[in-house]
Amino acid sequence: MEQLPAHRPLTVVQLPDGRHVYADPANLPAPQSAGPQVVHIHEAPPDRTVQRVALGSGVGAGAVAAGVYFGPLLVGALTAIAANLAMLAFIALVLGWAVVTVVRTVTEGGKSGGRRGRKGR
After folding, report:
1. Is the pLDDT of residue 71 over 80?
2. How confident is the model at residue 45 (pLDDT cuts 50, 70, 90)?
3. Which of 59, 77, 99, 119 could bond 63 through an S-S bridge, CB–CB 3.0 to 4.6 Å?
């Protein structure tokens, strides 16, 4: 047992890519300094693209606030308009059906004979 090397405890180390491994911190390469991170517009999530363009072009926080506030507000307004139009179309359909039914009834003059077949001629 005396020939075994001395036990060095391994520690959990977080690598630059975010993974955690058991390693000896003395054997790891030196960490590199992090430079400025460049995020291209096509890599941004779709809901943040307008805000990134606004900030990148120097428009300022007003455009970002407008995009954040008025975006969902516009979606809600368009949904409400679509619901109102659907309700109006349904009411117009019911009223049209009622008018056609009344006109057919009045035009027949109250005849209760119904449709005449071949023998009625």
Report:
1. yes
2. low
3. 59
pTM value is 0.38
Work out the angle at residue 102's Cα, subtended by the Cα atoms of residues 98 and 103, and round it to the nearest 5 degrees.
115
DSSP 62: H
> Furthest-apart CA pair in the chain: how many Å?
124
Cα–Cα distance between 73 and 67 in angstroms, integer? 10
Residue 59, Cβ density class (10 Å: 0-12 exposed, 13-18 middle, ≥19 buried): middle
Query: pLDDT for 20-39, tens place per residue?
Result: 777 766 666 666 666 676 66
Closest CA to 40 of 59, 53, 28: 53
Do residues 55 and 64 touch, judged by C-beta distance below 8 A?
yes
C-beta neighbour count of 51 within 10 angstroms: 19
The Cα angle at residue 98 between residues 96 and 104, in degrees rounded to 5: 100
Residue entry with tokens 């606004």: 54
The radius of gyration of the chain from alpha carbons, rounded to an integer in Å, stands at: 38
Residue 31's φ and ψ, nearest 5 degrees, are -70, 140
